[in-house]
Model the fold of this input.
Amino acid sequence: MKKNFLLLLFPFLVHAQNNSADIKETDWLTDYANAQEVAKKTNSNILMYFTGSDWCSPCKALKKDLFDTNQFKEVAKDYVLLYVDLPRKKELLSAEEMKQNKALLSQWNKKGIFPLISLVSTEEKELASLSGYGSKVDVEKYLDFLRKNSKM
Done:
């Protein structure tokens, strides 16, 4: 009986897996200098995303509800994306990346708010920021914020 159930379930699992594979992953950079270089070449602003990937529940929800969607992938084309992770488990990042992310935190997120997105110009000036995440209701607020602040 179990075997038959799994055989019936298999096509649905394969189909679900194919759908998620069709969604192109968004390219997040993790090196600030590299992000600056790309931003200057493309005349784009940097969207800096401050997260605590292994401890911040609102950050995890924001990733799932916003960053993993096709709507975000469309809006994200206008930005250079920089993922600034500050996990509690230090072994998740190299010592160099952790040092860089702490420096970025002290420069661009002085209050230590998570999640936070900060839009930074090629001249290294903060243009706008948006913090916090409560529920899926906030997704449209984030998308509107990103559309409004897009250079395109």
Observations:
- Confidence is low (pLDDT under 50) at residues 4-24.
- The helical segments are 2-22, 32-42, 57-67, 70-76, 95-108, 137-148.
